[in-house]
Amino acid sequence: NGGGFFSARDIVVINDINIKNNSATMGGGINLSSSTLTMHNGEISSNVATNRGGGIIVGRLFNLLEHPISNLTIYNGTITANNATKGGGGIAIDDTCTFSNQTAAIQNNIPDNIGYFNRTEI
Fold it and tell me: Distance between terminal CA atoms of the chain?
């Protein structure tokens, strides 16, 4: 999981990154598991997930409640042309996690730009 980038129980800041043309079961571009990620600028595009989160999946490590939630904040940047079979083409977010969009363009993702899910639906 996390075809381009995987983070588990970390605090990460990334600047001006391009994550393109990756694939995974969940999180074709980025898989964020019980982590905090702040992204400044950059592009997440043309990634594919056979489950959820074509561009990014935001969830808990091993999908368990005893693990901390994930937090995603994006400043500027673009999330586009990503694809996920079960939802969250751009970003799939566990409904217990947090997401803050600070002027990022999230568009043209299939089947949707942002999709929320309950961890029991994985």
Answer: 13
Q: Kindly list the strands in the beta sheet with 11-15, ordered across the sheet, starting from the edge strand earlier in the chain.
A: 11-15, 36-40, 71-75, 98-102
Nearest to 30 by CA among 98, 100, 38: 38
Six-digit token pair at 99? 């997401």
Distance of CA 85 to the CA centre of its chain: 14
Three-class secondary structure of residue 106 per DSSP: strand
Q: pLDDT at residue 39 above 60?
A: yes
Q: How many CA atoms, within 13 angstroms, populate the side-chain half-sphere of residue 53? A: 27
Looking up tokens 């594919």 gives 48
Global model pTM greater than 0.90: yes
The pair phi, psi for residue 92, each rounded to 5°, is: -110, 130
Place of tokens 């217990």: 96
Could you tell me whether strands 56-59 and 43-45 are parallel, antiparallel, or unpaired per DSSP bridges?
Answer: unpaired
> Two tokens at 82?
């990503």
